[in-house]
Amino acid sequence: MICLTGFVTLLLIFTAEARVGDSSQLNFCSETEQCLLFDSICNSTTYEVRHYESVKWVSTDYKSLSMELMMFQSFWRLYGYITGENEEGKKIDMTAPVLMKIPEKKIFQQGVFTMSFLLPAEYQNNPPQPTNKDVYIQEMPAMNVYVRSHGDMMHTFADKKHCEELSSALRPVNAKYEKGFHYGAGYNRPSWNKKCHSEVWYVVEGDPVCNNSEADDQNPEP
């Protein structure tokens, strides 16, 4: 087990170049030309630690009891934006992943979900503003995340299962992460007939913790 030092984390932040780019750089991103790119800090059989640069997304919030109840309306709000419902009337290519910020709440309790589409590289600096009042541009800060990948479509039960598996893997190594929410990332169009690539993310709090000897080899101590 190794806990990366703050120095290494800062070094990654200032040297990382990957933001939004060619999807061929990721073997699981095949349905769009551009994807959200990242630096892999370490990887194990139970979770991965990634560093993401600050990027802009188009987002919408929706108060709901569940992920399923918010997906349809949220998707079409954002789809409207990329098909011309913006101040410049621009048609904007779809990217991956579709990201959802998912509140941690009781099963029959409402919470605010946020769905986001990643803006392509050419719109990162100056994205056209939405004309729908329920849609907005947001810039997420650079962050490290704990990631667990899976082959299920994004829905409440799969999300809950894989979040529990990720948190169970993080607990023994005393890895700290932000509480109250997590992210779900989907890279494929919904389909019951093919294998998907989906992910759950927890945002790292403090220094990221790796839990395998491979990470030690990638980040040797001086």
UniProtKB/TrEMBL annotation:
It is found in: Cytoplasm. It holds the Pfam family SOUL. Keywords: Cytoplasm, Signal. One of its GO terms (molecular function) is heme binding. GO terms for cellular component: cytoplasm. The keyword Cytoplasm applies. Residues 1-18 form the signal peptide. Transmembrane segments: none annotated. Belongs to the HEBP family. Monomer. May bind free porphyrinogens that may be present in the cell and thus facilitate removal of these potentially toxic compound. Binds with a high affinity to one molecule of heme or porphyrins. It binds metalloporphyrins, free porphyrins and N-methylprotoporphyrin with similar affinities. This is Heme-binding protein 1.
